[in-house]
Automatic annotation (TrEMBL):
GO molecular function annotations of the record: hydrolase activity
Domain SGNH hydrolase-type esterase span(s) in chain numbering: 7-182
Hydrolase in keyword set: yes
Protein known as: SGNH hydrolase
Stored PANTHER family: SGNH HYDROLASE-TYPE ESTERASE DOMAIN-CONTAINING PROTEIN, THIOESTERASE 1/PROTEASE 1/LYSOPHOSPHOLIPASE L1
Any Pfam family matching the protein: Lipase_GDSL_2
Keyword terms: Hydrolase
Gene3D superfamilies: SGNH hydrolase (3.40.50.1110)
Organism listed in the record: Paractinoplanes deccanensis
InterPro entries linked to this entry: Ester_Hydrolysis_Enzymes, SGNH_hydro, SGNH_hydro_sf
Length: 200
């Protein structure tokens, strides 16, 4: 049986910055599942530029497709637009409830640490890191409360991006193909775990 795999969220979930479709996180994760004996059909519901406020509509579209597995990558655009966690997180919760009610196992990748983005001024990095952490932690708590899996790449993989600017695409904000490889490797264990739950 082929697992329906929905990918929701923002430009990182969509794959903006990758050199080829096969280099995106979604394609890499789909290939990883297949390599571990889980045939799957990925479908992108993510939209570049999306914020948490856009998640409920994405979740409604995804739920109508009846996925068994869903991945949500969200938070970067909330941070760049200074959306406070108390506004962003309830939208994530609403999306999670829609997907869970549709029978999907859901993996959430919370907000990344934007302090590692090359164009962030050095004097602002501590403040940006603190803001990223606030949203990241609030999203993590909300995801766990709704029975979702959390792939904690937002803060833990930041050191790799901070030390290697080749992981960014030409716009110095979105990941490059190499960056998506790092992200997919970090996400894969949680995605595999969620798929295993479905297999019973």
């Amino acid at each position: 049986m082929t697992l329906r795999f929905a990918i929701l969220g923002d430009s990182i979930a969509y794959g903006q910055g990758a050199s080829a479709p096969a280099d995106t996180a979604a394609a890499r994760l789909s290939a990883d599942l297949a390599a571990h004996g889980v045939p799957n059909e990925p479908r992108i519901f993510a939209v570049p530029g999306a914020q948490s406020r856009d998640l409920p509509a994405q979740a409604a579209r995804a739920a109508a497709w009846h996925p068994g597995l869903a991945l949500i990558i969200i938070g970067a655009n909330d941070l760049t637009r200074f959306v406070p966690p108390q506004q962003a997180v309830p939208r994530l919760t609403a999306a999670l409830r829609t997907l869970r009610a549709a029978g999907a196992e859901v993996v959430v990748a919370p907000a990344p640490d934007l302090s590692v983005v090359p164009w962030v001024p050095a004097e602002m990095r501590a403040l940006v890191r603190a803001g990223s952490r606030l949203l990241h932690d609030a999203q993590t708590q909300a995801a766990l409360a709704e029975g979702a899996h959390v792939a904690d790449i937002g803060m833990s993989s930041a050191a790799g991006f901070a030390g290697d600017h080749s992981l960014f695409s030409a716009d110095r904000f979105h990941p490059s193909s190499a960056g998506y490889a790092v992200i997919a490797d970090a996400l894969a264990p949680a995605v595999r775990k969620a798929a295993k739950v479905l297999a019973g």
